[in-house]
Records
---
Amino acid sequence: MTSHLNVTTHSFTECQAQAAALAERIAEQLRAALAKRGTAVLAVSGGSTPKDFFGRLSREKLDWARVQITLVDERWVADTDERSNARLVQTTLLQHAAAAAQFIPLYTGDAAPEAGLARADARIAALPLPFDAVVLGMGDDGHTASFFPGGDHLAEALDLDNRARVLPMRAPDAGEPRITLSLSTLLETRSLYLLVTGEKKRDLLADARLGLGAARDYPVRAVLTQQRVPVVVYWCP
Ligand code: 6PG
């Protein structure tokens, strides 16, 4: 384990061990939240990295019926689309024991994220925040959630004084339009994880944390340098 100010990194030699360790840790936190408050709230990322973690977490024994799960961001596509993060969560996390959890999607079925924004915002506003855990991922371009380089609402999304809970996001490398929780909303959490794989992303994270070269401008840097919530990185090759 290595620690740098606000960022602690757990490195694993096997990715299955990484997924299992994070699943156990999150399950423990959800159990503790249920014991203490009777409810638990979790926000997760989409993309390809969390699949094994979702599979493991879905088999953890806890009172899932009292757990609410939402997304840190969503691609604005139907929930039947292969690129839908909701679909990923439905098919990999809301299975087995976790099938009883309540899922709160960001996608509303409106034609564009701007049109669905108020409804998505109301869904997040209705959650009993703070989150118990937020699990972020990271792209090779240094984006996290839908904080993409060149994103049309990037500055607003990263502005910790901005009260917006959700924002639409369009960016050259984002594929489809997106919707994302704002950084200040993501930081309304009792714990914050960054699940990443591969040496390229490990190096990118180190550069972003230190503000070296091009990584100085990577959006993930805003997560690594904030001081509100400690960041725990789970890494495997
Ligand atoms: C999304 C995500 C996004 C993701 C990274 C990493 O919807 O794309 O939530 O922020 O975490 O793009 O994606 P991979 O796990 O596929 O590398």
---
Amino acid sequence: MAGIKAKNPSEPEFHQAVHEVAESLIPYIEENPKYKQAKILERIAEPERVIMFRVPWINDKGEVEINRGYRIEMNSAIGPYKGGLRFHPTVNLGILKFLAFEQVLKNSLTTLPMGGGKGGSDFDPKGKSDNEVMRFCQSFMTELNRHIGPNTDIPAGDIGVGGREIGYLFGQYKRIKNEFTGVLTGKGLQWGGSLIRPEATGYGAVYFAQEMLAVKGDSLKGKIAAVSGSGNVAQFTVQKLTELGGKAVTLSDSAGTIYDPAGIDAEKLAWVMELKNIRRGRIREYAEKFGCEYYEGKRPWHVQCDVAFPSATENEIDKSDAETLVKNGCQVISEGANMPSTPDAIEVYLEAKILYGPGKAANAGGVAVSGLEMTQNSMRLPWTREEVDSRLQQIMKNIHQTCLDHGKESDGYVNYVNGANIGGFVKVADAMLAQGVV
Ligand code: NDP
């Protein structure tokens, strides 16, 4: 860790992600010295390549704006780099390195042949016109195009990058390269996208919670859930949860949380989707529309719930939030977001021995269906909704089984953190050993 900190100063999120993985892996590596001799742990914490670039564009007032673009190509041992693009003002090198590092293990867990990467920009799409977003995306892709390709590096969406942004990025790539390929995932259905891709991360997080509960002979039926965020992952988490008989009672955004004890049913969710994806409004309006509580500047973790689905951003559950969740009887945490729990919060879950599904396992459904989108693009053949959904369910089951195989403790408690970290590591590490010192 001292080496990581010295080499990557001022990148606390990256240090946090590596530390968490190293804690699980070091005992395993001690038992398997081949990984130690080949310095696999040190090698996976060093990106294969980091690209940083200027993104100049012109706003609606005719003024020049300048953002910074990034792509971290972290590891290609088991497949081409794969991982999302994030457009958010907080984006910096350390955040993207943490996300790229997590992505390597997550992609390995999916069982599909995908390496890991991540990218994005400190551009904030909030409050920008469609034309401004388009001009930004075109400028971003004008540089990024030379580093990516359907067999090299295949970006997707993340915070601030949804269907609209992927469309503009894809249009510019196609125009520059004069080729129609599956270079991005999360595309529209009419131009190479996969059914279930928009739903996949949220659905996957719910399927993972279901798998964890099934080990205890329980299910999501009748469970009350706190969900954070109100973007892509949160919306489809609520949808699948409701379908499976659970009840979501919260949603949030960076300004606050709504609490609707009656439950966010299909009709209310449709309204949220229109609010967030089309009107691009604030979640506060939900409380005004449906007459429920709104907690300005607060996160959802103080409400009574059986299950929590953090689906907004990193470090959104701290130690005291975790203690409140446990005190209120929450039995399951399934992370739709990446690294939403601080290390102290994770300690609280593990000590209380509740079911805790870390992001790299619980939210892997998104990238898994991105992998399926790549397969369909290569075959030039779209699959049905049922086909993709059943593959997604099977992948989430497999990931859960991998976690059991590597994370079951002597008293029967499943430590999904160890399970996911070791399970994701082995495949990448063995591939790196086979490929020599590269
Ligand atoms: P969206 O941009 O669609 O939604 C993000 C949501 O989180 C918004 O409600 C946003 O509120 C809120 N949010 C973002 N940043 C913050 C912050 N700093 N503090 C409080 N709230 C915040 O993103 P996604 O739903 O796609 O992503 C959510 C999480 O899921 C991220 O951690 C992402 O990395 C992870 N993830 C996403 C995948 C995908 O397929 N999309 C795959 C795997 C993981 P506001 O509008 O106010 O900013």
